[in-house]
Amino acid sequence: MSASPGPASPGSAPAVRRLVSVWVLVPLLAAFALWAFAWPASRLAPRDLPIGVAGPAAATATVEQRLAAHPGAFEVHHYTDAAAARHAVEQREVYGALVAAPGGPELLTAPAAGPTVAQLLRTAAESAAPAGTAVHVTDVVPTPAADPRGAVFGAGLLPLVLAGVASGAVVTVLRLRGGRAIAALAGAALLTGLVGAGVAHSWLGALTGAWWAEAGVIGLTVLAVGATSAGTAALLGTAGLGVAGLLMVLIGNAFSGVASAPELLPAPAGVLGQQLPPGAAGTLLRSVSYFDGAGAGGPLLTLSLWTGLGLAAVGLTAARRPAGGSSRPEGGEELRGAEAARGADRGPAPVAAAAARGLRGSPRP
Question: Cα separation of 237 and 229, whole Å?
Fold first, then answer.
């Protein structure tokens, strides 16, 4: 008779390996999170930031020369007059425009597109204007009175991302498959969209656009993140939740530029962030809430693609499973048979005990 192996002692090799893995993985994860969040924040600077210049060429030549003194910082767009420049700001073609007006230079800004950018443009306009000349500033698209610094808007993205990751995790843990999983993700996103608009728009006043459009954007954000999380888990197993969380929270949220602007982040963070759901969601919500939907096409397409791919992964992996569901034994007879088979390797006594337990658990005729 062979003795069954006891539990691994604290000093055994597997236990030591698990201990060392915790010591190594946790600091690495902390270092990665610090890099993802702190590195972009420490390197904020304009990088091809779209800015307009309006007025006669002779009047704007000096301004353009001074802006060109910062290579790679600004992407200058030319407009004939102040009306054209104002329209460009309202359509999110540029973050602001410097107008050479008869009464002195005027800066048109859109703090709703990013208060950090608006402040940066003020500094740039003052340095580009002739010495001793005061620059008049006009906020074409201001921030809401209830959120003048954009703090509520900037802080609101992470909860939406976490809600999406949570919905994907719950669907995975509950082992919902196919249509039920898709229905659970869509229902959770829909209700979160309504709650989010109620809090951010109706209560806090941080959003000022069309209420239902804002609710739709919030719901689509949660659905895109949730579908990606559940789809990744369906393809990779439970480990897929960790991959999705890493991608959405540590990379997507940190590189979203929602607290500043994508054009202020170092490469490739600014571009990469806009290709992920958190960054696209921040841009889309700004467009819908403050700019009547201007510039919403690109981020809407991005969120739709992530949603479609995630839901497709959830549906296709469910379709490839056996018709009876999971192939793991779930009935009592299968479990008792497996237990008896394991007992056969341990000698006659465990086999008899397993058989006795099986008889006691069998239904009486």
Answer: 11
